[in-house]
Amino acid sequence: MSGIVEIEVTDVSVEGWGIGRHEGKVVFIEQALPGDRVLARITESRRGFDRAEVHHILAESKDRRIPACEIQGRCGGCPLMPLNEEAALRIKVRHLEEVLRRVGRLDLAVHRVIRSPQDLAYRNRVRFALESTESGVRIGFRRRGEARHFVEVSRCRLLPERGTRLARDLASRLPRAARVDALTVRHAREGRCWLLVLHGAASPCAALSRAASSFLGAHEDVIGVTHHEERAREVVEATVLAGRGVIEERIGSISVPVSSSVFLQVNTKAAERLYGEVRSMIAGEEAPKTVLDLYCGLGMIGLFCCAPQTSVLGVESHLESVEIGRAMIRAQARRGFELVAAKAADFVEEVIGEQRPADSDRRFDVIVMNPPRAGAGRALVEKIVRLSPRRIVMVSCHDAAMARDLQVLAEHGYDVTRMSAVDLFPQTTHLEIVALVEPQQTR
User: Fold this and answer.
1) Which of 136, 173, 318, 337 is deepest in the core (most CB within 10 A)?
2) pTM to 2 decimal places
3) pLDDT digit string (tens) for 39-49?
4) CB–CB of 185/156 below 8 Å?
5) Structural domains for the chain
6) Is the dihedral of CA 305, 307, 308, 314 positive or negative?
C-alpha cells in the first residue's frame, strides 16, 4: 500500500484531489493538479480506487502558481488555490457540464461565466473552529470528516485581514472551560463593521458575557457579539452577549440588515452580479406581471431582480428572515410584494388545491427557486410544473442537485434555454448556477 508510483494527473475531484490512473485504476492524489506528473505514494487502497500523496513532482502543470496562503493544503480549504484563475474556472465549468450529463442526462453547455470581482478576501463571513490548550483558546480549521485534524490559522486569505485578527483576539479572551467550539466573524463592507458569533451546545455562561463585553470595548468597528446554542449546526437559541446582534450590509442600492443567524450570500460583490443575471432571466423579452419566489430568504431576488410594477410573492420557512424581509420591503416602499412564512412544498400544494379545473389563467408568470443544497426534489418540481409558469429561473450552489431538478423539468416538457455560472466561491471547486427553463411549446 505504501508503494511509490509515477502518475500523470489529468483532472481534479470536487474535493480538490488530483486524479490519475495507475495500471488502469483511478488514483486520487492529495495536492496534485491537472498537468502534473508526479511520484505518488499510495496511502489507501480500495476496490475501486486508491488514495495517494505527492512524494515528488517530476513536472509541474503549466497552470500551477504559488498559493497565497501558507497553510493551503493543510486546513482542508481552498483546494484550487495552487491553480491560476483561468484554469480553475475552466475546470469548474467543465465539471458542471459533466455532472449535468452524468446525473441529469442533460447535454447542456454553460452560456455565460461570470467572474467574482475578487478572488481573495471576498467572504463576508467565515466560521473558525476553536481548540482549547494550556496556553489559551486558538482559532483554526478542521478538515471535513477529520474532527481531530486541527490547523491553527494566523490569517485566512478568504476574509479581510481584520477579520482573522478580531477572531484571534476574541478567542484569546475566552475562558478555557467555556463550552464553545466555533467562532464566526461576519463583515459588512458598508461601514466596515463586524459581528462575531460564538457557537456551542449549551447556553452561554456569565464568563462568556464578560469576555464579549471586554472584547467589544476594545474594538470600535465591532457592532456586537452573539452566542448560538446549536444542535447539529442548527440554531436552538441566539443570545446577544454584548452590543447589537445586527449589522447593515448593502447590495446595490438596497440596505440589508443581517443578524447572526440570517443567510446572505458569502461573496457580497459577486452576489450583485448573480442577482443581475437572475434579473435578466426573470425579465426576458417581456417583464412578468407575477413572480413566485420559493426559498426566498430575505426576499433579495424580489427586491433586486423584479421590476417595481411586478407583483412578487416570496415564500420562506425561516421566520427571522421573513420578518427582516418584510421590514426591508416597507423601507423600500415596495408595493405588490408579499412574504409568506411557509415551507415551499406546503405552499405550492396549497396553491394547487385552490385552483379550479377550468382555471386557464396562469397564477404566476415566472417561478424562481433557490433551494438548499439538497435541491427542490422531484415531488416539488412536479407540483411547480402543474402551475404552468411561462418561465422558471433556478439558482443553486450544488451541481448534482440542480441536475436532478432540471431532469424532472425536462421530463415534463421544459428545456434549459440559458445557463450561467457565477464564480461566487473562488479558490474552491464550487460555482453558483443560474438556469432559465421554459416550456417547449412556447419557443
Assistant:
1) 337
2) 0.90
3) 999 999 998 99
4) no
5) 4-64 (2.40.50.140), 91-117+267-442 (3.40.50.150), 125-259 (2.40.50.1070)
6) negative
